[in-house]
């Protein structure tokens, strides 16, 4: 049997890379134009950083979705199941609150979750993550949502909808949780095991349930949105109004709660019509209070993360043709044994300026041209006895079939002049 990648992980093959690079470059441009700087934090952190941030009732903790291990120093470490905790840890550790605020930080990289594997749900996947720290203003919420929408739209996605809600302030959440407990405790025996656990730890997480009997109990009940205090309601109204102003398609989602415990006020997701059950491309929300609970200053924050695999799926849905893998500009073919080294030496020189491939053994012209063609090159550059005698290379344009002898010393310039039209 062939060796296999770990279940829930996947390889990103050479032919997949152009789409990944295109996405990464486009995202970097959009976010950096909006003043975001990149930050790269370690792939693992002390487990405590994640547990403190996600909250005891989050799926990460309750459903043991974290890859946690003990290292040789008996420290409990965890592969990051999301970016926010490590990023906030770095923000606090490096005293970044003294920098001009609000500060915008983004990261791109792998995320690890021990989840049930299904279509669009992996155990190692990738996220683009953005955090804006240092402002509690509703304008920042709207701008952050808009930046997410723009990032995805610039990538070429259509059919996007922002689902916007609010989970209120901590008092509102507490009041809502009390209401759910009072209403559901008498019927607790009808709840699933996870449902019961949620009722005990953080009842509003029940709104996220997919279990049909839990759903039947929770569906008719009030929503967090019905419990907003007047300031939280005004905050929400302002975000809503700005999304209207900027023509960002949005709808109210009164049940949005998000998977982690730390959110307050604005919570949102972006959905795409094309990709089936796992239609959420992105989720985010405001988390004032989190930085302080991690031991930092009282800094408000808001952020989002989208799944790269899921966005690439959605893009493939919208426009199925893939960008082609770029080949070298030229492919050098040795026509005799002596030319093998000559060609390798020339390739090394040309590569200071150009992407160049070559054959490693001597070829007859027919086979050599076929190799050049398969490499994706635009020019085949042949070298044999005649060329050696004349101090030249024979250059063939593989698209037009045109052929020319080019002096050795002129080869770099000859090819460079032809890169523009690639
Ligand atoms: P979350 O951090 O759970 O809000 O997830 C943010 C986004 O990451 C989701 O909207 C998905 O696009 C993506 N995502 C989350 N979990 C997975 C997973 N297991 N596999 C692939 N993508 C995921």
Explain the overall architecture.
β12, α12 and β13 (356-358) form a beta-alpha-beta unit. The protein contains 15 helices and 16 strands. The protein is of the alpha+beta class and 422 residues long. The chain is 36% helix and 21% strand. It has an 8-stranded mixed beta sheet.
Helix content bin: 25-40%
How many helices? The count is 15
Q: Could you tell me the strand content as a percent range?
A: 15-25%
Give the mean pLDDT.
Answer: 92
Low-confidence stretches: none
Major sheet size, sense and barrel closure: 8 strands, mixed
Present as ligands are: adenosine monophosphate
Globular, elongated, flat, extended or rod-shaped: what is the shape?
Answer: elongated
Main-sheet strand order equals 1-5-6-11-10-9-7-8
Write the layout of secondary structure elements.
Blueprint lengths: L16 H17 L3 E2 L5 E3 H8 L4 H4 L5 E3 L5 E4 L4 H10 L9 E10 L11 E10 L4 H17 L5 E7 L3 H15 L8 H9 L10 H7 L11 H16 L4 E3 L11 E9 L7 E7 L3 H4 L7 E7 H11 L11 E5 L2 H14 L5 E3 L6 H10 L4 E5 L1 H6 L1 E6 L5 E5 L3 H6 L6
Parallel strand pairs: 1-5, 7-8, 12-13, 12-14
Antiparallel strand pairs: 2-4, 3-4, 5-6, 6-11, 7-9, 9-10, 10-11, 14-15, 15-16
The structure holds adenosine monophosphate (AMP).
Condensed summary:
The chain is an alpha+beta fold. Helices cover 36% and strands 21% of the residues. It contains 15 helices and 16 strands.
